[in-house]
Target: ATP-binding cassette, subfamily B
Amino acid sequence: MKELRHVNKYFRKYWKKLFIGTLITIIARVFQLVMPSYVSNIIEVVEKYGQGLIAKGPAQQDLLLYIGIIFGAALLSGLFTFLMRQTIINVSRYIEFDLKNEVFDHYQKLDLNFYKSNRTGDLMNRISEDVSQVRMYAGPALMYGIQTVTLFVCLIPLMFIKAPTMAFYALLPLPVLSVLIYWISRVIHKRSTRVQAFLSNLSTFAQESFSGISVIKAYVMESQTNAQASDLAQEGRDKSMDLAKVNAWFFPMMILLIGVSNIFVIYVGGMQYFRGEISSLGTILEFIIYVNMLTWPVAIVGWLTSIVQRAEASQKRINEFLKQKPEIESPEQPEPLEIEGGVVFDQVSFVYPDTGIKALDNVSFEVAPGETLTILGKTGSGKSTLLDLIARLYDTSTGEIRIDGVPITNLDLEALRAAIGAVPQDAFLFSDTIENNIRFGKEDAHFDEIQAVARQAVVHDNIAGFAKEYQTVLGERGITLSGGQKQRISIARALIKDPVIYLFDDCLSAVDTETEEAILGNLRQASRNKTTIIVSHRVSSALHADKVIVLENGRIIQRGNHEKLMAEDGYYKDLYINQLSGKES
Ligand SMILES: Nc1ncnc2c1ncn2[C@@H]1O[C@H](COP(=O)(O)OP(=O)(O)OP(=O)(O)O)[C@@H](O)[C@H]1O
Model:
């Protein structure tokens, strides 16, 4: 129960509803208890009538009265049972909602390393399956728990008051039933944990096969993927069958033990009746009803234990993630700063913690507010890493990055990221309309602004060509854009944000050179007074830059501007000559 303590805060939050729910549960059970003793009364009236102790008229009147009471009590018990579900089960849904939001909010705060070391399927499983298991504890388990306790507390003393010997024998098999069901539930729990872990794998496999469907098709891997899927399905079937086998024991065991209890009641009650220790056969019937009323709650003790165990295991998995602290956080007292956009790298090195790859090695440079820096270099030379460090997606291993003279770690994280408009290398667009994808950069943007930035990113004409123009839905629910169109929408999204610092990570790689030139021209206009850092493989992005650096294996091997770099032999000049000759030819 240690892990489940996490849910107590939600119980406290909804304590009023839970309190009312508990009262209602108790009332519902008390009304349920009315029926057996009136059934006994009915039998007694019938017996008396048979023995000629009561006339037909009054006997009929008594019968009608008792039936009326049983009916009324059943109605009220039904009504309160309905209200009980409405309160306690509803609270469990609220708790499920709150917990899902808490987990999701926490996921959002965690940094990239967390996402790299955990699989998406697992993240999704914890927020859906595991939270559902915890809901079972916060709702049904709580409700049936209260119900069981109420019934035990009211019914068992009542049975002992009415007929102690019969009560003793009637209750004798029930602890055995509870222990057996507890034991079965433990096995069920073990096996269902295996099923749970398997489902996590299955989600990951399905998610990867669907997102990688084009690769699967292109490499004609359908049959291998199918074979893998059917292996997984077989594994799932075996695990589910294991679970089904133990589940199958549950009800037969219950029925057997109720049967034994009933036989005890009939035998012991019958003997007592013969000996005159009980006055009416109605008492036997009353006890049979009691035994049947108790069976489910007794069985449920075992079931509840298994729900609690499962919820504990699930909450443990959830807590594992909730306990993870984001490695990158805002300082407690950030320096107040109106960011102007001066960026300084002071002997910065960075090693990816998971792979140990040194992506940047002693990198130093300065970009003044409003300047443009272009970073060139072979693939894997550390260009994207450098941009990620400016947005503080990672923290430097050694050295310092300063924005307007203030170490980046002293700045408020949100303020820093709000000042940055980043266009990543892999343009990611959401399954939403084009308008909303661009609006992501500025929620309250007017439609005219959206069109204006789309024009600057040279994608407006493409959008206008779609039947639904800006309302065209992208992604899984809609059309698929070309790589270049995606990149340009992603640029428009950054432009509408109108940030102080632009980070463009090779975001024109999928557009033709003519469009690239048009966009670069527009970007120069849009980012005239903004600090702009462009990562590129094309020298065209460097022609008008104030500064250029060339990276190789994480080190700066050349720096200057176009004119200076053309004056020396090296990577830049070679690249320029290569790309220029390519263009001319
Ligand atoms: N998330 C990551 N985890 C571990 N290592 C990484 C990660 N991202 C990049 N690397 C490694 O860091 C080095 C620099 O990568 P980076 O993406 O910064 O290069 P790049 O110059 O942007 O390459 P490209 O031009 O291909 O985009 C590479 O060796 C790469 O394998």
Remarks:
- DSSP finds 20 helices and ten strands in the chain.
- The pocket of adenosine-5'-triphosphate is lined by residues 116, 352, 354-355, 357, 359, 377, 379-385, 425, 506 (CB under 6 Å).
- The beta strands are 343-351, 358-367, 372-377, 398-403, 406-407, 420-423, 501-505, 531-535, 547-552, 555-560.
